[in-house]
Amino acid sequence: MASCSYSPVEFVNTCEDDFYFKAVAADTDVVKDSFGIAGRCLCYWVQSKDNKFLLLNTEQEFQAQNLTSTQLNQPDCMFKVQRYREFDKAEREGMPTMLYVKKDEGKNVVACCGLDHNVYSENMDALPEAIEETHHKALFYMTKLTASHMYQFESSVFQSEFLGFMCDEGNPCLKKLVLRKKGRDEVDDSCKVRMVMI
Fold this sequence. Notes:
Blueprint: E1 9-15, E2 18-23, E3 35-37, E4 42-48, E5 53-56, E6 62-65, H1 69-72, E7 79-86, E8 95-102, E9 108-113, E10 119-124, E11 130-131, E12 140-144, E13 150-155, E14 161-167, E15 175-181, E16 193-197
Antiparallel strand pairs: 1-2, 3-7, 3-11, 4-7, 4-16, 5-6, 6-15, 7-8, 8-9, 8-12, 9-10, 12-13, 13-16, 14-15
């Protein structure tokens, strides 16, 4: 593995207390990561603009609803944000992150983008330490909105598509987590979230 500030080398020999290496061509089979895990993750409650809290329901779907303080202390409401370093800085704003819930069994349930532009949950035993692609189904660019204490999460897979909330057709008191298409500077309150650190 190589990063932007390192050159690949090959061991040649030793002589007394010295080690000798030679530089090798950069077009060898060295794999270059696009993203690498950065530091520890932080735990948040994720709150919509209309004060509903995001949770992972029993059907493994992400939804937002009004919650009591007792309900907020359940593991399904406590979202972890894992940050990633970006080695090849894309023309995207924000910090690359993964948003997930840690289940009692030690599984990570991660918010992912589907090919049909939906949001679904996926179980992962462990989050990836490194991501070689320039995008990933579970990677979102988290950006703080300057005029407020709100954030938005842009999909790394689908540019200009953000995590947002949409009313559930079956129950108007619930909102489901979806991808919403909008311009980066376009105002859409359904894509704004408050991150309340736990």
